[in-house]
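Technical note accompanying the year-one report. For the benefit of new consortium partners, we illustrate the data format agreed upon in the data management plan: each record pairs a sequence with a structure-token string. No post-processing was applied to the example shown here.
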Amino acid sequence: MEKVFVGKRKAITNWMRQFSTFVDFDKKMFKIQEGFLGIFKWGDFEPLPKIDYVLIFRTFFVKCEVCTADDLLDNPNSYYQVSMVYRKNRRIIVHETKKRDEAFSVAYDVAKGLNARLMDSATDRRQGKWVLLP
């Protein structure tokens, strides 16, 4: 049975442009799909690089000059992002959402599917922590 995960990049998606990330755990492939008006879609599967770990963190939709890291907690313009990290600092964005539970669920699923470690930098931006997978 083929296992393909589909993540949505909700932070940058609007009604005209949509972004999705497909990860095929069995074939070790991924695709970043961009769509226009929900009709036209493009993107090709590529080999998945060796993933160092899965990262979950919280950030702002847009650059906020007056915002501090403490503002993330209650700011309606912040969101959670789940990424696959490779070559120490390169990232493939898998999923974006404003919902904490959804973000952590996706991060667990991706980390388990890749048999990779999971780093939580969303709970405490200053000190990321490794999460044990169930």
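Partners are asked to follow this layout when depositing records. The chain is about 10% helix and 45% strand.
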